Structure formats: C-alpha cells, structure tokens
Amino acid sequence: MRARFFLLLLLFVGCKDNERDDEGRHLPFDASKPIEVTSFMPDSGRIREKIVIKGSNFGNDKSKVKVVFKDALTERISTVIGVDNNTIYCLAPRQISGQNTISIEIDGKTVVPTRVFAYSASENVSTIAGGAGGTKTDGSLAEANFSYMHGIAALGDEKILVFQRDNPSVRYISVPDNTVITVHAGFQAGKPTVTTDRNTVYATGWDSPHTVYRYTRESGWAPSRLGALGTFARIRALALDQSEKWLYFCDRDGKFGRFEIATQEVEILNPALDIIKSGDGGYLIFDPFHDCFYMSVQAAYGIYKIAKNAQGIYEATPYAGFNGNRVTNGYLSESAFAQPNGMTLDEDGNIFIVEGSGSYLVRKISAIDGYVSTIAGRTNVEGATDGAPVEARFSFPYDISNDGQGNYYIAEGWGVRVRKYAIE
C-alpha cells in the first residue's frame, strides 16, 4: 500500500514538472528580458539545411521571429518552421559561400551569436534536353530535338520557353511533365523578356516590322500579337524596365527606343547610341538596382551600359571588356570577352553572361566589386560535358535566363541543347 502511494506521488510530481517544463517552453516573448542564444546546430551547411537554435525568451509566436543570415553581399531571410520559448527551428536560405553571421530578431529586439555559419554552395551543370541538331521534334525530354537557339526564358518550377533561329519557332519545355511542345511555329526572335511574376513573356521578331508577341501562363503560353515596333535594323532582344509598362530595344545601328505595351506606341529615346555596330545586334537586359540597361555586342568584345546622362538623355558607355578578342578575368575595364552573348541579372545584381565562339564559357560580373570571373566551362574548349562547373563544356551558348531559385538555363546555338547551371 505504501509503495503504491509513493508511485502515485512520483507520477504526480513528474506531471507537475512536465507542466512546468511545458509552461516554460510555451511562454510568450517577454520584452523586459533579453533574448539569449546558447547554441545553434549545425554550424555549416547548404541551402535548406535544418538549423536548430537553442536559448531562451524566444516566445511562442513564429510570426514575430525573424532569423537572418548575412553574407558578404546582403541579408537573407530564413524560413522559420517553428518556435517555442527555448528553441527556434528554421531552414538556411541560399547564400554566398563563406563565414556568415546569424541574427535573431523578435518584436524589435535583436541578438547576434558570436559563432558564424559556414555556408557552402553546391554548383552543377546538366543537360535538360536536345543534342541532335537540325531537327525540330516535340516529345519527351529524351526524344525532343532543337535547332539553333538564340533566346530563352526561365518561367520558374523548371519550365522554360526557348526561341529558335533556325526552323523558327518557340518551344515550351516542362521538366516536371517531361515534355517539349511547340507553341509558336514560324516565328524568329532573339532574347525574350519576362515579367517579375514570371507569368508573361514578350518577344519581338528579328527583322522589320519586328512584330511583338506576348505569351502568358494563363493561355498555356500560346502567342498573342501585340503590335509591331516598325522599321528598324535587326533587333536581338527586348527588356522590361521596373514599371513593366514598356518594352525597350536597341537595333544593331544603335537606335534605342521603347514600345508602350498598353498603347503599342513607339518612342525613340536616342536615334544613334555611340556603339560599335554588330551584324545581329546586341543582347539587352535591365538592371533595377542601378536603373540602367546593359547590352553585349559581339563585334565590340564588350558590354555597354545604357543610362541617362545629366540632361536626361540615354547614352551608351563601355562597361566591361573592350580589350580585344580574348578571355581575361579581372575588374570591369581589365576584363576581356571573346564573344559576349546573352545575359541575365540575378536577385543580388550579379550579371551572368554566356560566350560563344572562342570562349564557350559562362562568365559573371560580381555585384560586390565588379570583378569578371569564369564560373563554368573551359576557354575555347567546345563540348557537351555535364558535371561540376570546372568540368562542364558548352557548344555556342547564346542566351541565359535565371528563375530566381538558383537555376540558370542556357540555350545553345550549334550545340542545340538546353542546359542548366544550378547553384544551391
């Protein structure tokens, strides 16, 4: 009988202790007390690494908790999965490789642990589809073939539009659905431009009258004609600005203008930019961080910056390269390009460029310091090898587009493959 009493007493005390523990774990954040971090684990990893942060006074409302990883360029917000007063569970965001700091912010208060998180990015090049040239075959990713491509648009969720120069057409690729479908036959365009939400793509024909087409997710990426730019020399690309109300273009003779989507009116912003003329014109992208455009020109072996001067007139100035037909890494004016083609800007402001003949590379202009580096391929070695960036080989890469999720899709010319460069 006495033994039974003591057993009941132990159970009662144990329940009381558990209640106290549970009560402590689920206490709300107390603004009068400091936030304390005693540890976090692991202290290294990659994107989506599960991080457990231990300490006290975290509260129990995850909507008030923000975990921030800071790398050499900017702050990255983590996804907080759960929180109790003593523990935060979160996922590491995509970052720049390095020793990065972590800060915990709760209801206006911030604490930064002394330890750092060693982030290591993983990079890989793979082939999505293609490889047998000269044909235009729809079907599965393994069955589909492409002709010479000049443009590509990343739509997110491993879905892509590619624009063929030979056998002119627009092809839709869905990796999840394992399919390639021709959505627009008989249309020859260069680099398209994509809205921020990735629901709409615009492209214009190479040659006059430069018909403009719109492709939307809602329509299943079927084309709809918007209008025409009019009579210009060859135009290789369109670019949306931050308002997404205008489509900007520059023909191969340096005539720079824009097309208003709502009214289809064309406005010439500069009739003759000071650029080196190129047979097919240049690739154009917009930089929202600096409110300017960049245009690559093969014949100039460089990249121009197009921005408003003090008088509000758009003008072109050399930005990177212009040091002859060769490949040299270095800061902007020290760098050299052999055949700069398509470009894309990532969410941090880094510029990625693909190069064709004499190079066969993917290059990067750093948003941190303007350093131009080679990130994939081997100089003047053509091929189709997948794998780590240093091992990868490309065949006349002509355009590149990123999906904002760490994936960069590349359209090859003579290689007739769609490639993927992934950073995690």
Descriptive report:
- The chain is mainly β and 424 residues long.
- The protein contains one helix and 35 strands.
- Strands 2, 4, 5, 8, 9 and 10 form a six-stranded mixed sheet that branches. It has a five-stranded antiparallel sheet with strand order 28-32-31-30-29, with no helix packed on it. Strands 1-3-7-6 form a four-stranded antiparallel sheet, with no helix packed on it.
- A hairpin with a 2-residue loop joins strand 6 (79-84) and strand 7.
- The longest helix has 24 residues, at 2-25.
- The model is unreliable at 1-21 (pLDDT under 50).
Q: Terminal Cα separation, in Å?
A: 64 Å
Radius of gyration: 26 Å
- Assess the beta-strand content as a share of residues: 35-45%
Q: Quick one: overall form?
A: globular
User: Helix coverage percent of residues?
Assistant: under 10%
Low-confidence stretches: 1-21
Report mean pLDDT, rounded to a whole number.
Answer: 92
Structural class call reads mainly beta
Biggest β-sheet: count, sense, barrel?
A: 6 strands, mixed
Task: Tag the structure with descriptive keywords.
424 residues, 6-stranded mixed beta sheet, 5-stranded antiparallel beta sheet, 35 strands, disordered N terminus
How would you summarize this macromolecular structure in one to three sentences?
The protein has 424 residues and is mostly beta strands. Helix content is 6%, strand content 45%. It has one helix spanning 2-25; strands at 36-41, 44-45, 50-56, 65-70, 75-77, 79-84, 87-91, 98-106, 109-111, 117-119, 123-130, 149-156, 159-164, 169-174, 179-185, 193-194, 200-204, 211-216, 223-228, 239-240, 246-250, 256-260, 266-270, 283-287, 292-297, 302-308, 314-321, 330-331, 340-345, 351-355, 361-365, 371-376, 397-402, 407-412, 417-423.
